[in-house]
Amino acid sequence: MDKKNFAFDSMNYILLAVGMAVVVLGFILMSGSGSTETSYDPDIFSARRIKVAPAVCLLGFVSMIYAVIRKPKA
User: Positive or negative CA dihedral for 14, 64, 56, 42?
Assistant: First the structure.
């Protein structure tokens, strides 16, 4: 088969995998214990959960979009 018939090359798949890993890392940063009716955990409002983790997820999704629209080298 001719390589020109494929929509993605190996670099596209690598970029997709890296983007997915960054998204998973963002969700891991967002996770943690929560508050219940009997105990309050102020960590749910930490900067890591509110600011850093969503930014990491957004960066991962943007990199995945780039990996999909990137044209393979001919």
Answer: negative
pTM over 0.70: yes
CA distance 16 to 72: 13
Lookup: tokens for 63: 């990199």
Asked if pLDDT for residue 4 goes beyond 80, the answer is no
| Residue-wise pLDDT tens digits, 64-74 | 999 999 988 76
DSSP the chain: --GGG-S--HHHHHHHHHHHHHHHHHHHHH------SS---GGGG-HIIIIIHHHHHHHHHHHHHHHHHPPPP-
Q: φ, ψ for residue 65 (rounded to 5)? A: -65, -40
